[in-house]
């Protein structure tokens, strides 16, 4: 079983469902680390849909910013699923955190984990060029983050139309 898996794909590609199935396949108590916050009605509905999709039996940790602490607290409790990294990045940017330092700390934390971690991220660089400077900055940072995580991942899967394609 890979220690660090990175699951990527476009919006509604099936990446979260694939990642959930992967974590469940390893047995033990699955842990779901959610980075989303229900800041409006639409996001509240999305979170509810994700909870329904994955079903009961997951330990839930909601952590929009301090992903390292959530991974540290949950290590040894079973395989973990972090959904999703691009929301985590967005949260950091909106809070004006040092994204580079946060990602460096995440790499240190991931290297120290004893239980598997599955990271879900969006592939945002394949679409149109964002119209705003903030959108372009976010797209660029997502690409940089995904490359950085991909370099340390033992396994990378690109999910397209609900089907995974092994990249690494």
Structural overview:
The structure is a single chain. This protein is an alpha/beta fold and 168 residues long. Helix content is 45%, strand content 20%. The protein contains 6 helices and 7 strands. It has helices at 15-25, 41-54, 67-74, 85-94, 99-111, 133-152, and strands spanning 4-9, 31-34, 59-62, 80-83, 117-122, 155-160, 163-166. Helix 3 (67-74) runs parallel beside helix 5. It starts with a strand and ends with a strand. The mean pLDDT is 94.
Give the SSE map.
Blueprint: E1 4-9, H1 15-25, E2 31-34, H2 41-54, E3 59-62, H3 67-74, E4 80-83, H4 85-94, H5 99-111, E5 117-122, H6 133-152, E6 155-160, E7 163-166
Parallel strand pairs: 1-5, 1-6, 2-3, 2-4, 4-5
Antiparallel strand pairs: 6-7
Ends distance: 14 Å
Helical amount among residues, as a percent range?
40-55%
Structural class: alpha/beta
Mean pLDDT across the residues is: 94
- Can you count the beta strands? 7
The largest sheet is: 7 strands, mixed
Strand fraction equals 15-25%
Spatial strand arrangement across the major sheet: 3-2-4-5-1-6-7
The helix-strand sequence is EHEHEHEHHEHEE
Our Rg estimate from Cα atoms comes to: 15 Å
Number of helices: 6
Shape descriptor:
globular
Unreliable segments of 5+ consecutive residues: none
